[in-house]
Amino acid sequence: MVNPNPFYNFASPLIKSFKQKKVDTLTYKTVSANAKTVDKNWVIVDVENQVLGRVSSAIAKILRGKNKPSFTPHVDCGDNVIVINAEKVRLTGKKWSEKEYVRYTGYPGGQRFATPDELLRKHPTRIVEYAVHGMLPKNKLGNAIKGNLYIYTGTEHPHEAQKPVKVTI
User: Fold this and answer.
1) With the CA atoms of 93, 97, 98 and 101 taken in that order, what torsion angle do they form, in degrees rounded to the nearest 10?
2) What is the band of 4 on the pLDDT scale with cuts at 50, 70, 90?
3) pLDDT tens digits, 66-102
4) 55: how many CB neighbours lie within 10 A of its CB?
């Protein structure tokens, strides 16, 4: 009997050959990381003269653990990241004056707007913080991963005891 679908007629020998392969299931075991087996390191990222979005996506990948072969989506398997020189990050185009950060106080009429220039004067680390947090999952795991990010203005930080490794992005 000939199937009316022409692709099926063409692909049927291929499908049969795939079905005939037998795989030794004992050699193919997927190893998933968990909280006990995860290897967490400390890294330093210097964001001086780096474009905000590009460096933030790289930081988010390190925080999430996607740069490791043992990445597991439901586990916090990323490294602890120390960001230095956060006030010297770069924005392209007219974003210093035209981009807006929106927040809400919780009261009627309490919507507040701030440009990156205003935010830099009041809280210099928040520009990098908001960019990285926007690239992390919006759930309990994302909230746990946010605790692994440490942002500082200048080159000084209090984490020398952890012996962080400098990473160039």
Assistant:
1) 120
2) low
3) 999 999 999 999 999 999 999 999 999 999 999 999 9
4) 22
**φ, ψ of residue 18 in degrees (nearest 5):** -70, -35
Counting residues of the chain whose pLDDT is more than 90, the rounded percentage is: 78
Q: Which domains does the chain have, with CATH numbers?
A: 38-167 (3.90.1180.10)
* Contact assessment for residue 52 and residue 124, using Cβ atoms and an 8 Å cutoff: no
Pairing label, strands 80-84, 149-151: parallel
The CB-side HSE value for 75 (13 A sphere, CA atoms) comes to: 16
What do you get for the CA distance between the two ends of the chain, in Å? 60
pLDDT reported for residue 6: 58
**Ramachandran angles phi, psi of 70, nearest 5°:** -95, 25
Please name the amino acid found at residue 86: A
Distances (CA, A) of 138 to 28, 51, 100: 33, 24, 21
For residue 114, what are the β-bridge partners? 101
- The pTM of this model reads 0.82
| Inter-residue contact 128 to 89 (CB < 8 Å) | yes
What would the two tokens of residue 69 be? 């072969």
